[in-house]
Design brief:
Layout: E1 12-20, E2 23-32, E3 37-42, H1 51-61, E4 65-74, E5 80-85, H2 87-104, H3 112-116, E6 122-127, H4 135-201, H5 208-221, H6 225-241, H7 249-269, H8 273-293
Parallel strand pairs: 3-4
Antiparallel strand pairs: 1-2, 2-4, 5-6
Helix pairs in contact: 1-4, 4-5, 4-6, 4-8, 6-7, 7-8
């Protein structure tokens, strides 16, 4: 269609994969619509020390929406385990054994098997690989997933914008048709007002102020040009907003609310079958647009 749009969808998926020293780091990011930026990060136990760094990187790329971030680590060797003897405790055992022998004549008879069967004598240490060593690789996989995600969200944003623009053009047509019918609305309301005045003029007890008030109300009903002018202005603003390089979802939603208000006013003022038809069509288009705008960042 040749249109320029910077709209970004809040729905998308991105994946990034980095391999280092036989370890595979995979980051998957799924996003959906949300009023604000809401992030949930899931990583293996012991890796959450990198959560803040990942969160900051995601915040640079996503400004609104729900983001579920999954980081998996594959191929990591199990931690090495080393056994150390608690020498102080062992010396206490041996000293107590000597006391038993000297005082009671009981020989301790301590064997290696006895030591192995006494877990309290052993200190088991797990040597885990340092998470910080893989920090750069984890962040690189997150960056790769974000690049993929942004591309998908941008493509979806283009599809949404194209559909929205078709609906905006359709609304423009409906407004144009109603502008052509505006004089007929004035004539229709004017005829009703004349009939009402003829009825009142036949009664001498009618308050003249009431006649003036009613005439003013009917005259206001006869003019829908202001509402149609504002509608066209909102449609132009809607088109322009789609080209802005920033989150625009809330602004588009506000414009749709304003357009709905103008359409409702036209419907309540112009009690004309031809106008009512276009009012219904406008409200239908605006409802569909509102649903789509909920998914724009």
């Amino acid at each position: 269609m040749g249109m320029i749009t910077n709209a970004v969808s809040m729905t998308g998926y991105g994946r990034g994969e980095i391999e280092r020293d036989g370890v595979r780091i995979v980051t998957e990011i799924r996003t959906m619509n949300h009023r604000f930026l809401d992030m949930v990060i899931r990583m293996p136990n012991g890796w959450m020390v990198l959560e803040d760094l990942i969160r900051k990187k995601v915040q640079q790329a996503i400004r609104r929406g729900r983001a579920d971030i999954f980081v998996t680590i594959e191929g990591m060797k199990p931690p090495e385990r080393k056994a150390e003897v608690d020498w102080n405790l062992l010396e206490s055992f041996i000293s107590a054994g000597k006391t038993l022998k000297e005082k009671w004549g009981i020989a301790p008879g301590l064997t290696m098997a006895d030591l192995i069967n006494k877990p309290e004598l052993w200190l088991i240490e797990e040597v885990k690989p340092s998470v910080e060593e893989y920090e750069e690789s984890v962040l690189a996989s997150v960056e790769m997933a974000l690049t993929s995600l942004k591309k998908m969200r941008r493509q979806e944003g283009i599809h949404l914008s194209r559909d929205l623009m078709k609906r905006v053009d359709r609304l423009d047509e409906y407004v144009g048709e109603m502008e052509e019918l505006a004089p007929e609305v004035s004539r229709h309301v004017g005829n009703k007002l004349r009939k009402r005045l003829e009825e009142w003029l036949g009664h001498s007890d009618i308050d003249p102020d009431r006649i003036l008030t009613e005439a003013a109300i009917w005259a206001e009903k006869a003019d829908i040009t202001e509402e149609l002018t504002r509608l066209k202005s909102h449609l132009d603003q809607f088109r322009h907003t789609l080209e802005i390089e920033e989150p625009i979802g809330r602004k588009l939603d506000f414009l749709i609310q304003e357009m709905n208000r103008e359409v409702n006013t036209v419907g309540s003022k112009a009690n004309l079958k031809a106008i009512s038809k276009y009012v219904v069509e406008c409200k239908s288009e605006l409802e569909k647009m509102k649903e789509q705008v909920q998914n724009i960042e």
